[in-house]
Structures are given as structure tokens and as C-alpha cells.
Amino acid sequence: MGFLDTQPAPVGGDGDDPYASFRSEHPREVLALLRELRDGSTPVTLAGPGGAALAGTVWSVDA
């Protein structure tokens, strides 16, 4: 599976957040998402703008 080198979209001060519909802020939503990632053994990649990246899976959720 290939991945594209992407950059985040700029979030302007005009209140228009292009990622608002994808954001999970309520603790119950975050917990449910983490449990889905854990139960599905879904690969997760955390990447920074400088090219540093960490790949792994969510092994446990302590809630």
C-alpha cells in the first residue's frame, strides 16, 4: 500500500476549518475511535512536518 507525501491544509482565522467534520473532540467519541483501532489492529502512522514518522498499532486502551 503506497502513501502520498501530503501536507495539512492551512486553517485560517476566518473560522472555516476544512477538517471540522473529521474531528472527534468528545471523550466518548475519542474512546470509541481508539477502541475501533485497537480491535481492528489498524495500522496507525503519526507523522510530523519535518518527515519524522512513527508507525504502529493501538495495542491497549486504558479508560
What can you tell me about this protein's structure?
The chain has one helix spanning 27-39, and strands at residues 43-47, 53-57. By secondary structure, it is an alpha+beta fold. The chain has 1 helix and 2 strands, in the order αββ. It has a domain at 26-57. A two-stranded antiparallel ribbon has the order 1-2. Helix content is 21%, strand content 16%.
Keywords:
63 residues, alpha+beta, flat
The tally of beta strands, per DSSP, is 2
The secondary structure category is alpha+beta
Helical run tally: 1
Indicate the mean pLDDT.
85
Give the overall silhouette.
flat
What string, H for helix and E for strand, traces the elements in order? HEE
Radius of gyration: 14 Å
Identify the strand order in the major beta sheet.
1-2
Helix content estimate: 10-25%
pLDDT < 50 stretches: none
Distance between the termini: 32 Å
**Percent in strands:** 15-25%
Main β sheet profile: 2 strands, antiparallel
In summary, what is this structure?
This protein is α+β, with helices and mostly antiparallel strands. The chain is 21% helix and 16% strand. It has a two-stranded antiparallel ribbon with strand order 1-2.
Q: Could you give the topology of this structure?
A:
Blueprint: H1 27-39, E1 43-47, E2 53-57
Antiparallel strand pairs: 1-2
